[in-house]
Write a structure and sequence with these properties.
The strands form three sheets. A six-stranded mixed sheet has the order 2-3-4-6-8-11, sandwiched between helices. The protein has a three-stranded mixed sheet with strand order 7-9-10. It has a two-stranded parallel sheet with strand order 1-5. It has eleven helices and eleven strands. By secondary structure, the chain is an alpha/beta fold. The longest helix has 21 residues. It is globular, with a radius of gyration of 20 Å. The N terminus is likely disordered.
Length: about 280
């Protein structure tokens, strides 16, 4: 297992408020369209600490992707050495210095929950490219995406227990659903970080690649996924989300989704083309 990337404290990130760390007015996230993929690049130096500005930028990227029917995939990545290394120490320090500070932290976590839930339920497919450390809220952001590809050397974890906290932006729920209670207990209760190769073995990510090869592999993966019809991806995503719920809601959703897809002009064209080719 490769050594951990430097981090100031479990589940936290160094302050990004210093002028030398981030130019005044610099956008925390940039978007660029590549065919049917909207690439959203995290750029809040030094470590993409999650704050309201970054959450608003992710929200805006979702707005853009969902409003454009030509976009099938939102590809979330980072231009920095880390993916996202957790909470902003400057904000935490400010909150803990004021009587009302803890409630302000709770409100930020509540906002993170809302944005990450929107990522999870978006009709567009979401892909997280994890090139470096994804710790605390950074991993919670990645867990809210449909698919994750990580550098084998990247560090992933939810180490909040080491600070007497918990991963409250969906970490306890999504990691448990994704990788099982045993893995969730190991990482959360043990405040353990793992590398990308181990994360693949544990089912936390779906793919892992050497860091030098990751950008090209992630780009190719996003392009392959974006070649699939957005409306079909959305219906499939909706049904998968219902798989963990009790009762027959997921089966009913499959019937409803199948009906809508059979009536969709693009599906009818694709099926007709397939039948014509099979006839020959």
């Amino acid at each position: 297992m490769s050594p951990p990337e430097p981090a100031p404290a479990p589940g936290t990130a160094p302050s990004s408020a210093a002028p030398s760390a981030r130019p005044t007015g610099a956008a925390p996230l940039r978007t660029e369209r590549a065919g049917a993929v909207l690439v959203a690049t995290l750029a809040r130096a030094p470590v993409n600490a999650i704050d309201e500005a970054l959450l608003a930028a992710i929200d805006a990227a979702l707005d853009a992707a969902e409003a454009d029917e030509g976009i099938a995939v939102l590809h979330l990545r980072s231009e920095l050495k880390v993916f996202a290394a957790g909470a902003d120490l400057a904000f935490m320090r400010q909150c803990f210095a004021a009587p009302e500070g803890p409630e302000a932290m709770v409100e930020l976590v509540r906002r993170m929950q809302a944005v990450f839930a929107r990522l999870e339920s978006s009709p567009v497919l979401t892909l997280a490219e994890i090139g470096g450390a994804a710790l605390g809220g950074g991993l919670e952001l990645a867990l809210a995406c449909d698919l994750r590809i990580a550098a084998s050397e990247a560090r992933l974890g939810l180490p909040e227990a080491g600070l007497g906290l918990l991963p409250g932006a969906g970490g306890t729920q999504r990691l448990t659903r994704l990788a099982g209670a045993g893995v969730a207990r190991r990482l959360i209760l043990g405040a353990e970080t793992v590398d990308g190769a181990e994360a693949l073995r544990l089912g936390i990510v779906q793919w892992a690649a050497p860091r030098a090869e990751l950008p090209a592999q992630a780009q190719a993966l996003a392009a392959r996924l974006a070649a699939l019809p957005r409306h079909a991806l959305a219906e499939n995503k909706r049904c998968i989300a219902l798989a963990g719920q009790p009762g027959d809601a997921g089966y009913a959703a499959e019937i409803d989704g199948t009906r809508r897809l059979y009536q969709h002009p693009d599906t009818r064209r694709r099926v007709a083309d397939f039948l014509d080719k099979s006839r020959g």
